[in-house]
Write a structure and sequence with these properties.
This protein is mainly alpha-helical. Helices cover about 75% and strands about 0% of the residues. About 25% of the residues are buried.
């Protein structure tokens, strides 16, 4: 672990080095920079498509109550020391990298809405497979599915939100409102998941 973390530290440090030499193009802000709650409320009330997307993704965010416990579930089901965490990590990282490119390519051809729906299906399949996975290789599929679900939401759902905003001037407000709506569930879900796992066990929370 120590060597792996050292490599990660070096790579992340190197990734920062170009930024002092990066110059952004000059632009004059078109607003005073304050968040307009009146406009945000008006958008929420009037834009039905955006509201449906935000509610859908807020509900999806609640799955983070279970996601942090996937590795613990593997040890619980397969026995401590038998769960191959290195395999899960490798599969997850590789699938996320390749999946993001593939989902972006499909979104350009099929649209972001079907890809967002597909990402949600990948998320649902994650927990179904986690409940029944009999061995390490099948459990690796759990992490592959979750990586695809996460990549799909990051690529397709966020792009769909910007498409609904319509133009560059309203994208920041839409983005802020989109993240505000999902903030509370995203913060509370892992805590709720921990409480439910301790109270009910793994299968109910994965279901």
């Amino acid at each position: 672990f120590g060597r792996g973390f050292l490599i990660g530290f070096i790579l992340l440090t190197v990734s920062i080095l170009p930024f002092p030499f990066l110059r952004e193009p000059r632009s004059e802000p078109k607003t005073d920079g304050d968040f307009r709650w009146d406009l945000a409320i008006a958008i929420w009330r009037s834009d039905t498509r955006f509201r449906r997307l935000a509610i859908s993704q807020t509900v999806y965010t609640l799955t983070s109550a279970a996601a942090p416990f996937l590795a613990l579930l593997a040890e619980h089901r397969l026995g401590k020391g038998n769960a191959n965490l290195a395999l899960y990590t490798t599969v997850s990282v590789f699938t996320a990298a390749v999946g993001s490119l593939f989902i972006g390519w499909l979104a350009d051809r099929w649209g972001n809405r079907p890809m967002t729906a597909m990402a949600c299906l990948f998320g649902a399949a994650t927990f179904l497979v986690a409940i029944v996975a009999p061995n390490n290789f099948v459990f690796a599929l759990v992490f592959a599915l979750w990586a695809l679900a996460t990549a799909g939401i990051d690529v397709a759902a966020n792009t769909l939100m910007m498409e609904l905003a319509g133009d560059s001037e309203t994208i920041p407000l839409y983005s802020a409102l989109y993240n505000i709506v999902r903030a509370a569930p995203r913060t509370l879900a892992p805590w709720l998941g921990g409480i439910l796992v301790g109270w009910l066990g793994y299968p109910p929370i994965m279901a």
